[in-house]
From TrEMBL:
Necessary cofactors: NAD(+)
Compartments (UniProt record): Golgi apparatus, Golgi stack membrane
Alphabetically ordered keywords of this record: Decarboxylase, Golgi apparatus, Lyase, Membrane, NAD, Transmembrane, Transmembrane helix
Transmembrane intervals: 42-59
Residue ranges of domain NAD(P)-binding in the record: 115-403
Biased composition (Polar residues): 16-28
Residue runs in coiled coils: none
Biased composition (Basic and acidic residues): 1-15
EC numbers, comma separated: 4.1.1.35
The protein's role, per its UniProt record: Catalyzes the NAD-dependent decarboxylation of UDP-glucuronic acid to UDP-xylose. Necessary for the biosynthesis of the core tetrasaccharide in glycosaminoglycan biosynthesis.
Cellular component per GO, a single term: Golgi cisterna membrane
Protein's recorded name: UDP-glucuronate decarboxylase
Length: 428
C-alpha cells in the first residue's frame, strides 16, 4: 500500500516536472502554483458549463406546460403518484401538442371550439343551438342513424358551425377544447342494432386524450336498471340484467362510464358524466318507441295510446331545455360527476297518457299491451347533488313542455311535407 502511494506521488511529481520542463509552456514555467492548478482544471470547467447549458435548455419550461395543469396545486404534491405520473403526463401532453399543432391563437380565444357527437339528434341539436348562441365554434359529427340534418339546418352557412357525416365507431382527429359525446341511438327501437356505446366512447376518449379536450359523457338513468332504491341517487350501483334485450344500451352506458373514469384516472383526461333521465321536446324522433313521442304521435294521428303492462310503472319527464342547461353547467363546472339530470316529478304511464289526452285529444283511446322485457317499474331521479354542486334544477313542468313538443310534431306530421315523417329521406 505505502509503496503504491509512493509510486503515485513519484509519478505525479514526474509529470509535473515534465509540464514545467516543457518548452511549449513558457508562461506556466513562471506562473504561481495556484494559477497553474486553475489552468490545468480549465478544460473540465468548460465541459461542466457545456453540460449544464444543455440540461437547462431541454428542461420543460413553465410556459410550455399544459394550461389546465396547476403546478402550484398542493394536491399534486400530496398524492403518492403525483410526481412520476404528472411527469409522464407532462411529457405525453407535450408530445401530443407536437403531433397535433393547435390553430394559432386557439387557446387564447374566449370562445371555445366544441365538438358535439350526435349533434344532429334530438338533445344534440338543442345543445348546438345554445352553444352557437353563446358564440362557440361548434363541430357536429353524426351518422344520421336516428338524427336528421333538418335539426341543425338553420346553422348551415354560419362560419361558427361545421357538420361532418361520420360514424364515431371510426376514429377521427379534430382540434377541439370540449367534447360533448351524445352519439348513440337512445331509443329501444334503434339501440338494439348498434354497438355505438363502447367503441364510440373509446374513440372519443382517445380524441380527448390526444388533443387535451374536456370530455362529457351523456350516460343514462338506465344504468340503474330496474332499481331497488327509490328515488335513485348517484351512489346507487343499479340492478341491471347483463344479458337481456336492453343490455346493449344499459350495460353499454355502464362500460362507457367505466372507460371515462379510467381515462380520467389513468391519463388525466378531464371528464364529466351526466346520467340523463327521460327527456322530451321538439325534434324527438317520431315513432321511436320512447313513451312521450309515442303517445304524442299516436294522439295526433287519432290512434289509440299504447300502454305497456298495467300502466302503473313510473317515469320522470324532463323538458329538453332544462337538460341542455344542466349539461352546459356540468361541462363548465369543476365536478366530474356522475350527476343525475332529470325532473323529479313522477308520473305513471296512465297519468302521462291522461296529460297527453288533455293536451291533444280528450277522446284519445288507451290500449293495453303486454309489457316489454326488463321494463323498469320505477324511475325517479334524486337531484340533490346537481342542485348543490351545479346549482341546477329543472324549471319546465310536463304540462308546460308538452304543448311545445306537440306543435313541433303537428308541423312534422301534417304541416310540412318535406320533413313529414319520411325517415329515409330525412336521414340523408
Ligand atoms: N333523450 C333521452 O331521454 C335520453 C335519456 C338518457 C340518455 N340519453 C342520451 O343522450 C344522448 C342523445 O340522445 P337523444 O335523445 O338526442 O337521441 P337521438 O337518437 O335523437 O340522438 C343520437 C344522435 O346520435 C347519432 N348517432 C347514433 N349513432 C352514431 C354513430 N355511431 N356515429 C355518429 N352518430 C351517431 C344519431 O344519428 C343521432 O343524431 C344519447 O347518448 C342518449 O343515450 C338520452
Amino acid at each position: 500500500m505505502s509503496s503504491e502511494l509512493i509510486h503515485r506521488n513519484q509519478t505525479r511529481d514526474q509529470s509535473e516536472n515534465q509540464i514545467e520542463d516543457s518548452p511549449s509552456s513558457p508562461r506556466l514555467e513562471n506562473s504561481h502554483p495556484k494559477t497553474r492548478n486553475m489552468l490545468n482544471r480549465a478544460p473540465f470547467l468548460f465541459i461542466g458549463i457545456a453540460i449544464a447549458t444543455l440540461f437547462f435548455h431541454y428542461l420543460p419550461s413553465r410556459s410550455t406546460l399544459p394550461q389546465n395543469l396547476n403546478l402550484d396545486d398542493s394536491s399534486l404534491i400530496e398524492t403518492d403518484l403525483a410526481l412520476p405520473t404528472r411527469r409522464v403526463l407532462l411529457e405525453e401532453r407535450q408530445e401530443r401538442r407536437q403531433r397535433v399543432p393547435l390553430s394559432v391563437g386557439l387557446k387564447s380565444k374566449k370562445n371555445k371550439r366544441v365538438l358535439v357527437t350526435g349533434g344532429a339528434g334530438f338533445v344534440g341539436s338543442h345543445l348546438v343551438d345554445r352553444l352557437i348562441e353563446r358564440g362557440d365554434n361548434v363541430i357536429v359529427i353524426d351518422n344520421y342513424f336516428t338524427g336528421r340534418k333538418e335539426n341543425v339546418i338553420h346553422h348551415i352557412g354560419n362560419p361558427n358551425f361545421e357538420l361532418i357525416r361520420h360514424d364515431v365507431v371510426e376514429p377521427i382527429l379534430l382540434e377541439v377544447d370540449q367534447i360533448y359525446h351524445l352519439a348513440c341511438p337512445a331509443s329501444p327501437v334503434h339501440y338494439k342494432f348498434n354497438p355505438t356505446n363502447v367503441v364510440g366512447t373509446l374513440n372519443m376518449l382517445g380524441l380527448a386524450k390526444r388533443v387535451g379536450a374536456r370530455f362529457l359523457l351523456t350516460s343514462t338513468s338506465e344504468v340503474y336498471g330496474d332499481p331497488l332504491q327509490h328515488p335513485q341517487a348517484e351512489t346507487y350501483w343499479g340492478n341491471v340484467n347483463p344479458i337481456g334485450v336492453r343490455s346493449c344500451y344499459d350495460e353499454g352506458k355502464r362500460v362507457a362510464e367505466t372507460l371515462a373514469m379510467d381515462y380520467h384516472r389513468g391519463a388525466g383526461i378531464e371528464v364529466r358524466i351526466a346520467r340523463i333521465f327521460n327527456t322530451y321536446g321538439p325534434r324527438m324522433c317520431l315513432d321511436d318507441g320512447r313513451v312521450v313521442s309515442n303517445f304524442v304521435a299516436q294522439a295526433l294521428r287519432k290512434d289509440p295510446l299504447t300502454v305497456y303492462g298495467d300502466g302503473k310503472q313510473t317515469r320522470s319527464f324532463q323538458y329538453v331545455s332544462d337538460l341542455v342547461e344542466g349539461l352546459m353547467r356540468l361541462m363548465e363546472g369543476e365536478h366530474v360527476g356522475p350527476f343525475n339530470l332529470g325532473n323529479p316529478g313522477e308520473f305513471t304511464m296512465l297519468e302521462l297518457a291522461q296529460v297527453v289526452q288533455e293536451t291533444i285529444d280528450p277522446n284519445a283511446k288507451i290500449e293495453f299491451r303486454p309489457n316489454t322485457e326488463d321494463d323498469p317499474h320505477k324511475r325517479k331521479p334524486d337531484i340533490s347533488k346537481a342542485k348543490e354542486l351545479l346549482g341546477w334544477q329543472p324549471s319546465v313542468s310536463l304540462r308546460q313542455g308538452l304543448p311545445l313538443m306537440v306543435s313541433d310534431f303537428r308541423l312534422r306530421l301534417f304541416g310540412d311535407s318535406k320533413i313529414n315523417g319520411d325517415k329515409g329521406a330525412s336521414a340523408e
